[in-house]
Amino acid sequence: MNSNSRTDFSQLEWKWNQLLDYIEAGLVVPVVGRELLWAEIDGRLQYVPWYLALQLASRAEIEPPALEDPDPVATIVQRYLSSHTKGRNWPYTALSQLTKELENTTPPRALAKLAACPFALFISTTTDAYLERALNNVRYDGRRQTVVPRYGLGSRNDLSPQESGGTVVFPFLGRANPTPDYAVTAEDVLEFVHQFQATGTPRRLLDALRQSHLLMIGGGFSDWLVRFLVRLAKPGRLWSSGHSQQTLFMADRSIMSDGNLLDFLEHPLSDVEIFHVTHTDEFVDELHRRWTARHPQEETPQTWQVPPREDAAQDGGVFLSYHRSDASTARRVYEALNAAGIDVWFDERDLEGGVEFEPEIISRINRSFFFVAILSRQTLSSERSKFFRLEWRHAETRSKYAPFDSPFVLPVVIDDVSPIDERFPLFLRQVHWTKAPAGDLPSDFVRQLVTNYREAQRPGKQR
After folding, report:
1. Phi and psi, residue 64, nearest 5°
2. What angle do the packed helices 327-339 and 443-457 form, to 10 degrees?
3. For residue 299, how many other CB atoms are within 10 A of its CB?
4. Cis link prior to 419 (omega < 30° from 0)?
5. Res. 354: pLDDT tops 80
6. What is the pLDDT of residues 152-185, one digit of tens each?
7. What is the pLDDT of residues 4-52, one digit of tens each?
8. What are the beta bridge partners of residue 45?
9. What is the pTM of this model?
């Protein structure tokens, strides 16, 4: 740390109280980055990324990075890769060895103080084991009790219910090892982003983040990645006029000099609260001080429990589409399918005008095995801004890729509308309709759907 100036937190009482209240309720997940990696190495306090970059540059006989370089390790690896057509795995193997050599050093003081606060799930954006070791030292007397799921490029690992009941550190960008499946360069990070978008995993982790308030500490990320991570963690649009139930707290020294990014994050509708820090570890000092002042006798941190699924059909299952006026009848359909052991996505919220839900709806439809469309006189209404029409349009696109022997779209008619009524879209009129007056599904329809559903669940089955 080059400056003797200290961050003034005295004018932020309301913000601190809000954060501490959420922590007390067990509703905060910290996302921890490299700015906290100041550790004692070779008898003096050093910034770990800078130390690793210098060691790597020396071994590769490459010019060291500039003192002001925000990501010195990535710079050295990129220089190496740009001048070597062979041995492209070497930087990753060397970094893994260097990281392993630091296992005998004491974890950074800031991470130890963070470990003393009662967080149960941590997201690590660094590839070292310092956070895990700090948690083991503070909470488990040095025993290796902290759970770290295996995650990297090419992996679909996720949070697991078996990991409930303890402390979990999820390595969002992988963990240093001899193979290049963890993030070092900007291109590596981009591959992790692509992997998430292409596979939808880690899905349980994302669900957990969207059910929590996030505390992003010292990520040191570039503008585009900060924006991506902030949006990824939000269940709705970042700038929404509606009331958000999630707050993103940020303490990150690197974004303080980026006026455009600050303006974006501090938009009045963004629900992002920024602690303007001179040094990020000072924020952790203040957090620890305030927490221990509130809870001077507390010793046992909370333990992480994988949250219940917000709905049954996270991957696969049935998407149930209906007009809001038919909600009570749709619930009867839902209950019949649920009782038969079929996972059903049934959203009883009023989505009228809820534009921010569109990406979620599209994702649900794309991941479902079947789309049950409840048809009624209400669905022939000429009123605009009805979400079921958006659902139908995306179901039509999704149905083009369904197997011919097991249709994706399953219309269920609950009153006297006709399958030849041209007010219904052609793709609905071209498939078989099931009559279910007032939502009473025929038993043969339920049995056949169960059979098709179980078939779709078979490992390796493509839909």
Report:
1. -70, 160
2. 60
3. 8
4. no
5. no
6. 998 888 887 655 568 999 999 999 998 889 999 9
7. 455 656 557 889 999 999 999 889 999 999 999 999 999 999 999 999 9
8. 40
9. 0.64
CATH T-level topology, domain 318-457: Rossmann fold (3.40.50)
- Tokens 């800078």 correspond to what residue? 50
- The predicted model gives 315-331 an average pLDDT of 87
Q: Are strands 370-375 and 409-413 parallel, antiparallel or unpaired?
A: parallel
Is pLDDT at 121 greater than 70 in this prediction?
Answer: yes
Could you give the residue range(s) of every CATH 3.40.50.10140 domain in the chain?
A: 318-457
